[in-house]
Amino acid sequence: MSLPPARILGIETSCDETAAAVVSDGRVVKSNVVASQIDLHAQYGGVFPELASREHVKVIDVVVSEALRQAHVNPQEIDAIAVTQGPGLAGSLVVGLNFAKGLALASGKPLIGINHLEGHIYSAWLNPTNTATHQPPRFPLLALLVSGGHSELILMTDHLTYQRLGGTLDDAAGEAFDKIARLLDLPYPGGPSVQEASAAGKDTAFAFPKAMLEDSWDFSFSGVKTAVLRTVEALQEEGRPLPVEDLAASFQAAVIDVLVEKTLLAAQEHKVREIIVAGGVSANQRLREKFLAESKHPVHIPPLFLCTDNAAMIAGAGYFHYVKDDFSPFDIDALPTWPLS
Ligand code: KG4
Ligand code: ZN
User: Fold this and answer.
1) Ligand in closest contact with the CA of 147
2) Which residues fall inside 5 Å of ion ligand 2, going by CB?
3) pTM over the 0.85 mark
4) pLDDT digit string (tens) for 286-323?
5) Torsions phi, psi of 159, nearest 5?
6) Bridge partner list, 34
7) CATH number of the domain enclosing 99
8) Which residues on neighbouring strands pair with residue 10, listed in sequence order?
9) Rounded to the nearest whole angstrom, what is the distance from the C-alpha of residue 242 to the centroid of ligand 2?
10) Are 314 and 291 in a shared domain?
11) Mutate to test the pocket of ligand 1, among 308, 309, 314, 341 (most ligand atoms within 8 A of CB)
12) Domain membership of residue 71 as a residue range
């Protein structure tokens, strides 16, 4: 069945990126503008929510205008406005939501509230270089969604149809990377700096626990986090210098190997055709290499700039709601509508 063409404007302000994008037909990225606040928050070692929302207010207008300009369209030439509804920082989300509502009212275009996690999943449909050979994912599929706030295994039998198989019982994978980075005195954001330190370390230097949680598709990263903490404390008590690279590499291996191995097991057991990996942690090099080396199923992992927060993924997800006439009322709040909250 061929779906109707549509051009969607996406807006994303759930955390510390102010982003806007125009995407055609859920796949073709016409523009993708991201204003990052990393430098602003780096001095605090993490996201400072009050500063984040103020920064969104300052730049949202320019970011949206720039996304429209780069796509060579005006608000009248788009078909709908998709905006992240949640989950995320409430004060940040309302900036994007209110801007999207204003624009929808002024232009008479429909509004579509998108769950941020759904957006990450739909990054796998985007074809940023517009290559003819790019294949969209095929159902049934298994999605591993690994971000700063979530680590979920989700089964999809069709568009917008989600069955949650499991998720983290404690810290999200990205959250564990961020906390270990702080412990090892590595700069914010934690994921990329742990990865960088790991490159010079030995992943077998420390045997940190890999919690496979047999008979469940859930994850748990508090054990490995505590093990790193205890090791650091013991080394400090002995007055020994911290082998930061070895600690980072061993921690990264423990988290990534569990993510990959459980996903591959779940894909086999649920007899899916393909696998999607999305969310900030899918930028991790070890994770990408391990999936590609070990998976018997085709694996869709977005290019690095679409792994972390962006608005192209929100516009992409918005298209699949648009084709079902699934629009949102103007009084939607900064709360996600989807079961994965
Ligand atoms: O999807 P995202 O940009 O924001 C959320 O929705 O949370 O994910 C951000 C998370 C952060 O915890 C960050 O440390 C992690 O993704 N991350 C990584 C890497 N790049 C970003 N974790 C591991 N390795 C990376 N290369
Ligand atoms: Zn995200």
Assistant:
1) 1
2) 147, 309
3) yes
4) 999 999 999 999 999 999 999 999 999 999 999 999 99
5) -60, 140
6) 19
7) 3.30.420.40
8) 21, 82
9) 31
10) no
11) 308
12) 7-128+306-322
- Closest ligand to 311 CA? 2
Task: Report the separation in Å between the CA atom of 96 and the middle of ligand 1, taken as the mean of its atom positions.
Answer: 21
Give 1: exposed, middle or buried? Use CB within 10 Å, 0-12, 13-18, 19+. Answer: exposed
9, two tokens: 């404007």
Could you say which ligand is closest to the alpha carbon of residue 284? 1
CB 197 within 8 A of CB 246: no
Is the C-beta atom of 86 inside 6 A of ligand 1? no
Same-domain check for residues 169 and 62:
no
| 300 neighbors 277 (Cβ within 8 angstroms) | yes
158 and 216 belong to one structural domain:
yes
C-alpha torsion 208→47→36→174, nearest 10: 20
For residue 75, which amino acid is it?
Answer: P
66-109 residue pLDDT tens = 999 999 999 999 999 999 999 999 999 999 999 999 999 999 99
Report d(CA 191, CA 280) in Å as an integer.
8
Q: Rg of the chain's alpha carbons, rounded to an integer? A: 20
- E-state strands within the chain: 7-12, 17-24, 28-36, 80-86, 111-115, 141-146, 151-158, 161-167, 274-278, 299-300
Number of structural domains (the chain) is 2
From residue 280, alpha-carbon distances to 46, 125, 146, 231, 302 in Å are: 15, 16, 6, 27, 10
Burial 168-177 (b: 16+ CB within 10 A, else e): beebbbbbbb
